[in-house]
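Objective 1b of the project was to move from sequence-level analysis to a structural picture of ligand recognition. The entry below was assembled by the postdoctoral researcher (A.K.) and checked by the PI before modelling. It contains the amino acid sequence of the target and the SMILES of the bound compound, adenosine-5'-triphosphate.
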Amino acid sequence: MITTENLTKIYTDGAPVRALEDVTLEIAAGEFVAITGPSGSGKSTLLNLIGTLDRPTSGRVVVDGVDVGTLRGNALADFRRERIGFVFQMFHLVPTLTALENVMLPLVPYRRGLKFRLEDRARELLEAVGLGDRLHHLPGQLSGGEQQRVAIARALINTPKVILADEPTGNLDSRAGAEIVALLRQLNRERGVTVLVATHNEVVAQAADRTLRLRDGRVV
Ligand SMILES: Nc1ncnc2c1ncn2[C@@H]1O[C@H](COP(=O)(O)OP(=O)(O)OP(=O)(O)O)[C@@H](O)[C@H]1O
Ligand SMILES: [Mg+2]
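Corresponding predicted holo structure:
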């Protein structure tokens, strides 16, 4: 489902930083993989390159059979929207929108072309993540763990093939963190979505099928 070939990223905004060096890896469809490693080892960089949020300095990323380096403009945005769901440490919910509206948001511009009612699908997903009784709450009225559940439901609204989660438990206490891990694991099993999680959290790593360790931008 995900292949990287000799992936290298050198940030050149200031003094050059070799964030990722020659990373070659393969992740099968339906796998749940943890990416661990010290702070600065390149975990977020790797997720951003796989998720097409950034471009590599050299090397290739293939997701779901598509060499993402060949995509430009709208094709790239379409690809990202249709195949990939993102979950971040800081949730990134819109504070003025309800849980239901936040989940619907990625597809609101496209709702005319949908073969299903967007609101129904968003409600179903919130029920699936255990928030059927919080549909009309604003993010500020939800706990951190509940906000992350909303973010996960939002990531699923496009029925993505891949979920990329960057420290999804980083802002949660251990109990809420464990619940989020269990939820991701459950969604992976039930929906077959491939999950890639960057984490410092041992509980996440233990739940994974496999752990990839990075050090100084290399897989070790
Ligand atoms: N936009 C950027 N410009 C310049 N350097 C960057 C940029 N983003 C990351 N880096 C550098 O690249 C290296 C890898 O960073 P990255 O964020 O991928 O690490 P990480 O493993 O996710 O760390 P953490 O566990 O702290 O989140 C670090 O040395 C970081 O300072
Ligand atoms: Mg990071």
